[in-house]
Specification:
single chain, fatty acid metabolism, Elongation of very long chain fatty acids protein, mainly alpha, 75% helix
Length: 306
């Protein structure tokens, strides 16, 4: 067991000290993964234990104005990062088929590296989503999918910045920023209040878009295992595992939330149709009985007249 631990520690230092990108070595939070791990653990503790305990005897906080500002900030920040990814990478200089790592100090390359680092910082800001749920006592929205997704992202993106902050793997953050622009725009409308609920009919499709992004990320990453490309496949393997895991969680959420709801609605419609048919038959039967009674009354009148 001791040898196994020693091997793990040795491999860790080999990766962090010798295989990491020297350009980000002295950047904020990039010297070690431990601060990010600590932040994620504190987040998990607050979301599941400390937060609900704190709110147990308190009324939900009204955070409408804060949520509108926060969600608008997310739309703007994600739009900026998507623009950066487009301008210096995926819509101008990068190849969707194979984009090797670039360790140079070229202005465009450094610009991409900085965008990837800001994306990493943004994943910490995303944790506020859950904090707001707790303070508003929306504990039903703090699902396993929500917690796992928010815990994994900062930690996994840290390794992305540390080992491969340019090249093929940046597609993950690029497409994710685009999806988050749509998602947080939805949240902006939702935060405006009940009057705007009628404009949120596309909520179901938002989950579909989330799943499509992880399918695209998986396919985009997998192709490098079948062609020659100067990009670390070991890192792409981490990206693929991450994407498939989150895709599975989203699919389970979609299935339990929307497919069951659809099934229940269909069952309700069927029951209503059945009830309507019974009511119709009952009305027809009553009408027939009334007609028969009317007929008998007319016949009796004729007999009396005779």
């Amino acid at each position: 067991m001791t040898e196994v631990i020693k091997t793990v520690i040795t491999q860790y230092h080999e990766i962090i000290d010798n295989q990491s990108d020297p350009r980000v070595k002295n950047w904020f939070l990039m010297s070690s993964p431990l601060p990010t791990m600590a932040i994620c653990l504190l987040y998990l503790y607050f979301a599941t234990i400390a937060g609900p305990k704190f709110m147990k005897t308190r009324k939900p906080y009204n955070l409408k104005s804060i949520l509108i500002v926060y969600n608008l900030f997310q739309v703007i920040f994600n739009s900026y990062l998507f623009y950066e990814g487009s301008a210096v990478g995926w819509l101008n200089h990068y190849n969707f088929r194979c984009q090797p790592m670039d360790y140079s100090e070229k202005p465009l390359t450094i610009r991409m590296v900085k965008a990837v680092w800001w994306y990493y910082i943004l994943k910490h800001i995303d944790l506020l989503d859950t904090i707001f749920f707790v303070l508003r006592k929306k504990n039903n929205q703090i699902t396993n999918l929500h917690l796992i997704h928010h815990c994994i992202m900062p930690f996994s993106v840290w390794f992305g910045v540390k080992l491969a902050p340019s090249g093929h793997g940046t597609f993950f953050g690029y497409i994710n920023c685009f999806v988050h622009v749509i998602m947080y725009f939805y949240y902006v409308i939702a935060a405006l209040g009940p009057r705007f609920q009628k404009y949120l009919w596309w909520k179901k499709y938002l989950t579909t878009v989330q799943m499509i992004q992880f399918v695209l990320i998986t396919v985009h990453s997998c192709q490098l295992f079948f062609i020659d490309c100067d990009y670390p496949r070991s890192f792409l393997l981490i990206v693929i595992i991450h994407a498939i895991l989150i895709l599975g969680l989203f699919w389970n959420f979609y299935r339990t939330t929307y497919q069951k709801t659809t099934t229940k609605n269909e069952e309700t419609k069927t029951q209503n149709r059945g009830t309507s048919k019974l009511q119709y038959c009952f009305i027809i039967e009553n009408k027939s009985t009334e007609d028969s009674r009317d007929g008998m009354s007319e016949e009796n009148k004729l007999k009396k007249g005779r």
